[in-house]
Amino acid sequence: MTFEGKIVLITGGSRGIGKSIAEAFAESGATTIVTYRNAIDNEYFDSKGIRHFQCDVADIKSVQEMIDKIISEHQKIDILVNNAGITKDGLLMRMSEEDWDMVLDTNLKGVFDMTKSVTRHMMGKRYGKIVNITSVVGITGNPGQSNYVASKAGVIGFTKATAKELASRNININAVAPGFIGTEMTDKLPEEVKAKYLETIPLKRIGSGKNIADAVMFLASDMSDYITGQTICVDGGLVM
Ligand code: NAP
User: Which member of 36, 44, 127, 148 is catalytic?
Assistant: First the structure.
């Protein structure tokens, strides 16, 4: 698959799933740009020819400034991958308002901020592919993650609403719902929780960032031109 000539923007691309997605696009010839919030390995990303911007997706002003800068340099953004996400797990009775707000602001409002700022330009070009990274728990629910689950279920609804709204402008908007993928986000789970998850995965293995990148690239390519508003689970069969 080649993305030669395409401008791809991936939020939260400094590590984990976002980094795998960025590497896959860069290897396929796309001009690849990632965002992050705290820190990035400049040397590594520079060596791969991947541009990087520090930008909090929850801060719409910084998002708009970054998008304006990218547009002034590249004139377009063809593909947006809304990947940045965080967890602040806890049972409802013990969950602080701050932890609720932080997760919703990053995972859901961040997708709104980015999509609104980028589609303004995609509409003019009458072309765009947006892939939102949600989670299987946004479909199934999960105890101890009411903030995260609400944000990810929100992303699925947002994907459908925006897909309907922007279809006439030739902008396809879909979501990928990862299951259990080996990253820093999942590394911090207790070993017994990981073992329990593994038992429930029909394919009996934890997924990789590349598994997610493969699905994202399909949804960002012309092979999925007639698909919009969908959520594809990439989860070893966990949810079916
Ligand atoms: P990760 O390893 O924790 O990486 C998260 C990335 O998001 C980092 O690049 C981080 O940047 C960035 N980020 C966090 N808050 C941000 C903000 N406010 N603005 C901009 N960037 C921000 O996470 P991951 O496991 O790769 O997960 C990626 C996505 O997949 C998330 O949306 C997650 O919910 C979803 N997901 C993951 C799994 C899994 O099993 N790992 C399963 C289902 C869904 P900094 O390093 O600078 O903070």
Answer: 148
